[in-house]
Structures are given as C-alpha cells and as structure tokens.
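To: structure desk
From: M.T.
Subject: fold request, one chain
Message: Could you run this one when you get a chance? Sequence is below, nothing fancy, just the single chain.
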Amino acid sequence: MIDLLRNITFVHPYFLLLLLLVPILAFWYARKRSGRYPSMRMPAMDGFSAHSLRGRLQIILPILRGLAFIALVFALARPQKSLRQEEVKAEGIDIMMAIDLSSSMLAQDFDPNRLEASKSVAKDFIDKRTYDRVGLVVFAGEAFTQCPLTTDHSVVQQFLAGLECGILEDGTAIGMGLATAVNRIKDSPVKSKIVILLTDGVNNTGYVAPLQAAKVAQEFGVKVYTIGVGSTGQTMAPSARRRDGRYVFNMIRVEIDEELLKQIAQMTGGQYYRATDETSLVNIYDTIDTLEKTEIEVTVIKRYSEEFYRFVIIGLIFLALEVFLRYTLLRTIP
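Reply: Done. Structure tokens follow.
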C-alpha cells in the first residue's frame, strides 16, 4: 500500500480524518477482548494448550478489518496519480510570408531554381516556429492570400509545396504583395507581427506603391523583413513563354531593387537581406528566427489517473479474507 501512495494526491483529503478512528477502535477492541476473556487460576494446566496456533492467529481478524477500513478511507479521499507534469515556455508571434511567384523565380542560379529553394528553406523555417501562427501570401502581377494565419503548420506547408510560377499574371507587384500581407496581419491581437517579403526583381506593376504599403505596415506596427533572392551578374532565367506554357530560358541579367527593399525594411523596423545562394538564404531565415521571439505565459499541464478503485479492491480483499477466516479456520464457539 505504501508503494501505491507514491506520487499520489487526494481530491477529497478531508476523508483522511477518518483514520483517526483507527487507534480509538484498536484501544476499544483491546479493552473488549480483555473483558471477554477473564483470567482464571488453575492448579495445573495439564491437558490445556494455552498457546495454540488458532488462538495466536485470532489477532489477525481485527488487523484485517482495520486494514480494510484504512483502504476504503483512502478510496473515499479519491486518490489520483500524477502521470506527467509538463512546463511549456512558448515564444509565439504572427508571421505572414509573402513570396514572389513571377517567372523570374524559375532562374537557375539556385538548385534547382529560386522558387524551389525558397520553398524548401521556408518549410524548414515554419517547422521551427512551433507556437507561431503563420500565413502565406503570393504575388506576381497580382497578389492574393494563399493561406490565412493559422497554427496548423501542416496546412501552410501543403499550400507552400503547391506553389508554382504561372498561376498568377506575370510581373512583380511588390506593393500589392506587401499590402495584402499587411491587411491579413494588421488586426492581430498579438504583440509582435512580422511580414517576410521575398522577391527577386523590381516592382513593375500593381496599383499599390511599395512605399505606400510600407507606410501602412508602419502605422499598424507590422515589422517587414525583406529578402532579395538572386545571384550577381547573369543567370539562366525565363525570357519568354511558348503557347504550350513552357518557358524559354536565356542568360538574363539579375536585377533586384535593393534600395526599395532596404527602404521598406527601414521604415517598418525590419531588416533587408540579400540571398545569393541557398546557404545564405538558410542563414537569413535562421537570423530572423533568432531575432523574432516573443515570450508568452508558462502553461503547466498535469495529467492524472484515478487510483481509488485499487484501494477499493484492496479493502474488499482484506474484508473478504477476514470473513473467510472468521467463519472457517478461526471460527470460535460463543
């Protein structure tokens, strides 16, 4: 029974006060027994077995009844065993990822191209943000929300894996991509809200100016991290598209409006990064992961298992054994 009480807590501990009756009942039983069996002087004890085995075993009966009483009192107190106690200290923020889907994202200066490398690194980044809400916006010549903010990262990653160039009108509407992301995150109640804007080009279309979108982000306390993706010099990239949808590749000069991306980041309190290869892109996301951590309250999770039935079973076993012995092996004649 002592082993059963390890890591045990009681829902109704006041029932344990009944255990105070145990010494009182023991004292009462001892007085009653001495009164029931008075001493008798005999000139000789030949023929009497004063210390028979049955006589000595009679003491077991009240002990068994007492143990049954104790076990049932523990059952009334409703014991519970703590199975696990887990302290979770989470760091969570809201993150909207805005990813460029213009045809230039198929450039082959990343392996196999800029888009696939960006998707792979973004997936790993999402995996690390266990307690964050993450959403996804895509843009090219237009922009739309691919996935709203959610803690179900598997859904975000499914949408991320399905991204392809060509599903939107071609072009690079940086302002519209940023404005869409900000609109999705601006009303979030959390303290820290960020947008990670990834592009490989120059704003050349859209009806929202990039700096205008950055000003809106600034007003709503949204921090924007901008990432320019692309090597330096020239690279093999799409230059035209055939009627069957396939792209024609040629050597194209890499052009990224770094000054614009720096301005957006500076206005909103974020930072601008240039990724010239996949390794530097991984390092950029690692840096953002380190910078953006907002501590939230500690949650203590406790799980219990009900243990009262064990004490009920033990009590009934003691009681049944006491009754069995009293009316069989240790039966006495009044």
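Reply (cont.): The mean pLDDT is 86. Let me know if you need anything else for the meeting.
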